[in-house]
Amino acid sequence: MIKLKDIATACGVSVSTVSKALSDSDEISSEKKKEIIEKANELGYIANASARSLKTKRSQNLGLIFVDNTNSGLGHEYFSVILNSIKQEAENSGYDLTFISNKIDFSKKSYLNHAKYRGCDGVVIVSADFHDPNIIELVESDMPTVTIDYEYNNRTSIISDNRKGLEEIVRYLYEMGHRKIAFIHGEDTDVTRQRLASFYKTCEELKIVVPNEYIKSAEYHIPEYSFYATKELLDLPNPPTCIIYPDDYSYMGGLEEIENRDLKIPDDISVVGYDGIYLSRILRPMLTTYVQDGINLGKMASIKLIEMIENPKSYISERIMVTGYLQKGNTVKKL
Amino acid sequence: MIKLKDIATACGVSVSTVSKALSDSDEISSEKKKEIIEKANELGYIANASARSLKTKRSQNLGLIFVDNTNSGLGHEYFSVILNSIKQEAENSGYDLTFISNKIDFSKKSYLNHAKYRGCDGVVIVSADFHDPNIIELVESDMPTVTIDYEYNNRTSIISDNRKGLEEIVRYLYEMGHRKIAFIHGEDTDVTRQRLASFYKTCEELKIVVPNEYIKSAEYHIPEYSFYATKELLDLPNPPTCIIYPDDYSYMGGLEEIENRDLKIPDDISVVGYDGIYLSRILRPMLTTYVQDGINLGKMASIKLIEMIENPKSYISERIMVTGYLQKGNTVKKL
DNA sequence: TTGTAGGCGTTATCAC
DNA sequence: GTGATAACGCCTACAA
């Protein structure tokens, strides 16, 4: 591998001159710069990130935490969209992305240690158990971090606006004449709590009565749970006119039970999903769902993290809400 | 940050002794080792990967190339499963994963340069334009690489067995009594060519006649193309009894047209997908499809790459076929 | 405008 | 069994 010294020798100048020339320092005359840069290209010089970061304490590398909790992890389109967007935006700013695990070996027994070991300038936490002490340790350290869909005190977070999501859904259903609205929610997480609270609050504002039997608990991204929940809802003596599912995928479970009973969507029962994955658009009838803006979430995460890294003094942590929008498909009937 | 020197001072030994003790060298007495390790833990020592790799020329870090060609990229479940599996296996062997782009800046104008810049020990090429000169340069360099679903001369590749996939599908359809089989294939790639060749070959072996009108071209993962292809096939004076789709997602496009015509699957028309994504299992009727073993593909990619890195002399490049299996759903009618 | 020298944290060689 | 020392490639005062 060609190094600065080789270029220096070839050009008959010193190493530091080469270093300065390549970093476009204006201490170096433009002719010399040109000559050196040409020679560097000719020799196929490639900098050595390790040496550079050893010296500068900066790596231009971001850590990425992506814990596959639900076993759907990366397979969940919401997250893969976010990840892709983080990657794109980071690359645009000259940062690379390295996955950070908490694999146990001498120097990487925690996320924080792992990130430090790799010299990450900051870490994006996309999906993780936010109550894991390891994650908390990381977030509370002096390592710049950004979390997605979870908020810590005094830390920057990028949040998909779950309250607004449920509010919009409920208000739309209200407009469409629905008063008997069931909500199948995901497992108990902060996201779920926000959605649930917003659901109740909006119903209350609209004077919609929500019987306890209309609230069912399922798990995100596992259609089977929603299948059973749907069954229970449809068996009710006074069944709902519309069911809100935890996510678009889970709706597929509900759909099965609805078809089992030869009910037609939306004529016999209306349904609403959440996420707005690709599938929701290609299903027929097209699914009415709240589209989360994964691209923007990922983009903001990168932007804010890099901002924090590059202006450590002046940066003030913030909570950024990313709103989505209601995709009005054809699964809600006008009553 | 605590460094070796701090531990050395604290223990009253030299830096090199600490270094050796922490790497469990048997030059050091076990008491001293124990003492040093304890002190290191106590002080919260974390090694510095940059310094280490500067010295050792090894980074324990793998590059990952994942080009979002089709704009579905990471959103394509097949790839996200592979990626996740690569990650898992790499972590198990103590390697990290860094995304490698070909963003243009002074020292990273190509994939190869980027990988060298980051000191990657090797690179997994998951999804990319395999005819891109940049990719070819990388593969032909002395950087260890593994490609997925594409084979270069004398390079290790992990291949999902597309020939076997189509052969199994066609033979199954034959058993089920089908003789009029249409095949909607994806855009012209090596994968597509293999599938197509295998389709023709198997039909020939079984003496199934394939009229040209039964072969339609679409694009992977874009249901709309398959929607139109399906329309054309069903409009044929002598339509097929079964349609093979480019992938499970594309089938959704076909499904729409089939439902538009009030045809029932499988009674009026049989269908087969490809990939075996989660969706295929939750659809009703459950989709008959060829399940690609993404987990194994990813796992083998990591294993082989690491093998190559750790035994550069003795390693012989190989082509590893990963077979899947036919998921017999309920979308093919027995004729 | 250019060059010299020191050091970032680690490992490896060699001497003791 | 332990320690001194050099070197990995780069950057940056500071000197010239």
UniProtKB/TrEMBL annotation, chains A, B:
InterPro entries: HTH_LacI, LacI/GalR-like_sensor, Lambda_DNA-bd_dom_sf, Peripla_BP_I. SUPFAM superfamilies: lambda repressor-like DNA-binding domains, Periplasmic binding protein-like I. It comes from the Bacteria. GO terms for molecular function: DNA-binding transcription factor activity; transcription cis-regulatory region binding. SMART domains: HTH_LACI. Keywords: DNA-binding, Repressor, Transcription, Transcription regulation. Residues 2-56 form the HTH lacI-type domain. PROSITE patterns: HTH_LACI_2. This is HTH-type transcriptional repressor CytR. It comes from Haploplasma axanthum (Acholeplasma axanthum).
